[in-house]
Design goal:
This protein is globular. The protein is an alpha/beta fold and 291 residues long. The chain has eleven helices and 13 strands. It has a seven-stranded mixed sheet with strand order 5-4-1-6-11-8-12. It has a two-stranded antiparallel sheet with strand order 2-3. A two-stranded antiparallel sheet has the order 7-13. Strand 9 and strand 10 (157-162) form a beta hairpin. The chain has one domain (5-136, 173-252): Spore Coat Polysaccharide Biosynthesis Protein SpsA, Chain A.
Length: 291
């Protein structure tokens, strides 16, 4: 099976977060002690994905390159792709088509945060599906803000409805999509919606129409946060801080995952830790080193 590649969509203008995002990309804002983009990067790492395309605006790309480099220090390979204008989530598959080169993909939105003990297993199950697609449903109190799963009485999925006025369920589709190699071709067939965007819901519907889309429900033991508003940005930071302070474990730490997976050596981890040793993050990395 062709190795799956990753996509992080980190474009857009972040208008809902103005004035914070007038001078910096939303995905570079801090979520407690790390830049926001660390969290989607580590989701892909937990799925075993090492080749990742990061889609940004032309203006913000130099900042992402300065922060992330080429990915080698985490055992990864980053490719940077420009999004000239934010024309919908499905556009990402057109922009990344050359990067994918016929490979299946896992795309995660740059402002989404996932947490849960069973997350690696859920990701592995989605990755194991060689054809079709897998998305994750999560129960929310305000489904009208999201793409919502419409379930038939027998529990099968009938449709995914984008930001419905009358949501057919409380299950939102999260910003994490495992799709097979046909995604760019399917995205090419999507027509702009009334708001002028290539909607991810329309792309997913093409899989659903063929019976090729699995919707996995993330239950009570998971957290899914998006950080598109001032309040949700603060909530996410408080969530991460509470977990880390309580457990003494880092959330969204690429150095730790890379070391655990054998993608970097102890010497490389030590070098990263010493570079950051003036704060708790660097001291945490030092504690990961074998005695």
């Amino acid at each position: 099976m062709t190795t799956r590649k990753g996509i992080i969509l980190a474009g857009g203008t972040g208008t809902r977060l103005h004035p914070i995002t007038l001078g910096v990309s939303k995905q570079l804002l801090p979520i407690y002690d790390k830049p926001m983009i660390y969290y989607p990067v580590t989701v892909l790492m937990l799925a075993g994905i090492r080749e990742i395309a990061i889609i940004t605006t032309p203006e913000d790309q130099p900042q992402f390159r300065r922060l992330l480099g080429d990915g080698a220090r985490w055992g990864l390979s980053f490719t940077f792709i420009v999004q000239p204008s934010p024309d919908g989530l499905a556009q990402a598959y057109l922009l990344a088509e050359d990067f994918l080169a016929g490979a299946p993909s896992a795309m995660v939105l740059g402002d989404n945060i996932f947490f849960g003990h069973g997350l690696p297993d859920a990701l592995a199950a989605a990755d194991a599906r060689a054809t079709g697609g897998t998305v994750f449903g999560y129960r929310v109190a305000d489904p009208e803000r999201y793409g919502v799963v419409d379930f038939a009485p027998d529990g099968t999925v009938r449709a995914i409805v984008e930001k419905p006025e009358r949501p057919p369920s409380h299950f939102a589709v999260t910003g994490l999509y495992f799709l097979d190699a046909s995604a760019p071709d399917r995205a090419r067939a999507v027509r702009p919606s009334a708001r002028g965007e290539l909607e991810i819901a329309d792309l997913l519907q093409s899989y659903l129409d063929e019976g090729a889309l699995a919707v996995e429900r993330l239950g009570r033991g998971y957290a899914w946060l998006d950080t598109g508003t001032h309040g949700s940005l603060l909530d996410a930071g408080n969530f991460v801080r509470t977990l880390q302070d309580r457990q003494g474990l880092q959330m969204g730490c690429p150095e730790e995952i890379a070391f655990q997976k054998g993608w970097i050596t102890a010497e490389s981890l030590r070098a990263e830790a010493l570079r950051l040793q003036k704060n708790d993050y660097g001291r945490y990395l030092l504690r990961l080193l074998p005695a």
